[in-house]
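Put briefly, the fold is written as integer tokens. One such record reads:
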Amino acid sequence: MLYVFQYPSFTSLRYAQSLCDEDGCISKNPVFQWMMFGKIGEDVYVQPSYQNEIIYPSRKNTVIEEIEVEAIKPTVSSVTLAADATLVLTIKGIDHAVSSDTTYATVSVANGTATITGIAAGTSTVTVYDQADNVMATITVTVA
């Protein structure tokens, strides 16, 4: 059995201070979380993407139960190009792109960059996708 009197430097104040974070806050300490709520905190890393995700805890008895992360909304824009003019689009994660009507505008993707080229007068819609086929951007291209 442990007798506190045998350890004069062991006080409730020193014990509480040993549980504190650098800023003097005890509530962020995992031991405090376990003692108060019966749960341990968990660091969650979420990588934003273009689709909804649900993050589940990696173990039982953690503070989080599940986190729902909303998808990044696709960019919607329009541009007017001259025939033979180009627009270079750089969005991190571009994998492929499609033009709704290649008579008016074409699109090519190389090294994560989409290049839209005006062909002839008219309107076309260019849709840019990521690797998982999620829509990243929709651009209405009017060639004048």
Remarks:
- The CA atoms of residues 8 and 14 lie 11 Å apart.
- The chain has a mean pLDDT of 82.
- The two ends are 89 Å apart (CA to CA).
- The chain is about 10% helix and 35% strand.
